[in-house]
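so my prof wants the structure for this chain in the tokens format not the other one, which i didnt know existed until like an hour ago. anyway here's the sequence
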Amino acid sequence: MDRCQTCGNEYDKVFEVTKDGARYVFDSFECAIEKLAPRCGSCGLRVIGHGVEKDELIFCCVNCAELAGVHELQDRA
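here's what i got, hopefully its the right format
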């Protein structure tokens, strides 16, 4: 059995995720999201959908981008 890298749970049904050449082991999607999903640059929520980006900044939505001073992004074209 392997151990989840987020919560430490030892579990027989873990799964692996490879990101940027690094291997991660998790026992749930919840733990994978906590470890790997970026945080919104404005409100701090985990961005688990597409979000919006400007350069290296990631936001959960256009409203958060605007609150952070990024005004050229759109939710829809």
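also thought this was worth mentioning. The chain has a mean pLDDT of 95.
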